[in-house]
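Entry 14. Structure prediction run on the chain below.
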Amino acid sequence: MVRYRGIESDLDKHLFLGALMDRNETLFYRILMENIKDMAPIVYTPTVGQACIKFGQIYRRPRGMYFSREDIGQMTTMVYNWDSDDVDVIVVTDGSRILGLGDLGVHGMAIPIGKLALYVSAGGIHPRKVLPVTIDVGTNNPKLLNDSLYLGLADRRLEGAEYARVIDEFMYAVYQRWPDVLVQFEDFSNNNALPLLNKYRDRFLCFNDDIQGTGSVALAGVLSSLKAQGLKAHDIVNQRIVCLGAGSAGLGVVNSIYQGMILEGMTHEEAKNNFWLVDHEGLLGTKRLESLSSQQKQFCREDIDENLSLLEVVKRVKPTILLGLSGAARTFTQDVVQEMAKHVERPIIFPMSNPTSLAECTAKEAFEWTNGKCLFASGSPFDPVQINGKTFYTSQGNNMYIFPGIGLGAVVSKATKITDSMFYAASQTLATTVSEEELARGQVYPDITQIREVSKRIAVEVCKIAIKEKLARVELPDNLEDLQDFVEQSMYTPYYAPLVTTV
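Output returned:
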């Protein structure tokens, strides 16, 4: 740790931990678990974004598996190149939309590697039972196509039926070898993310973290924010929500909150009327229907001029919640935030875009422009803010609050699929783990040092739903205390296994 703390650059720290992972996996996970608050941003976002950008330069050794369009017809054989017959979780990307950085092709492999390190450290999945995967279907990034250090196929991306054929063969290959495996889709482009999720979610045990995980953690933050104002979860039905960003992440968050409103008793039409979505062209309205996806069309407004700017929407709607999932830095301007604060006692402001450089506003800006009144959470970490001698605490709406627990529950129960009710239960559970002291400081998520306990509680709820919905493929304890013990005992803890067994 002395050597680690002596390293100045976050990227160099990332490389140091990666080298330790290669040499001594047990020690790596022990250190990561004991220093999760400091190291999670190094292992994963925001530092992992830098690692993806420089992946070709910093590449040291292979980790995980790569499948490409050149492997069509061979994937069911290729999966046996992996030397484990027991894989619980696969994180897969095609590198088409890495964080907010765009198309990085196979250099996006740092994402599955980092994500699975959190599955192990935060969710207790055994490191020998995880598999990072990148599917190489080319890249449309001209810089990478002309980069001699680019590690993937230097061709433009496959699209349409050719692309679908590669993904199909991959999915059937991995489930042919590992029938119980959970596949998490990660950083797929907006035009593929939701169609792939809808195509496979009822056939295989899978989910998309950018859509469902981000939505679930944002919903938990909203529920905690309501609680901080002395409101109940049911009061979510009274919120007016403006979301900047109508891609897969934005739609995932909006849909999660929308489903929460329905579960609290609203009709679909009533819930839909609580949302206003804004993209780079302005407010989504009915005149743009031909250019919008089916899910975007669901939230188009007919009662207000379309293509209005974010500021104009805020002026007219007077939102209680402002969400940012646009990947466009500093779009929550002073005018926008102050206009919102005029009409709301405690505005809920969530700039969720990653990495930090692409956040819609900083914590300092949000607190200063609202005179410290806002409830703030972001996708990347920000330090506490000092204003006039008072400290305002921030919260990071990190998906790691959700996906490790979802994964653990699915693995323990051997669920046949991941349902929306599992994600809603995860949101509710996460919100209940925020202490009164944390709420009083303005935090809407628990301290990240509690992540193993959070994951365990979420996993228990996932198991309960798997039992209730008859999705569990193993017999689980009926008693809650026994179920909690069963989940806890299933969680990996790093220790050195004895080489010699004594009698």
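The radius of gyration is 22 Å.
Filed with the rest of this week's runs.
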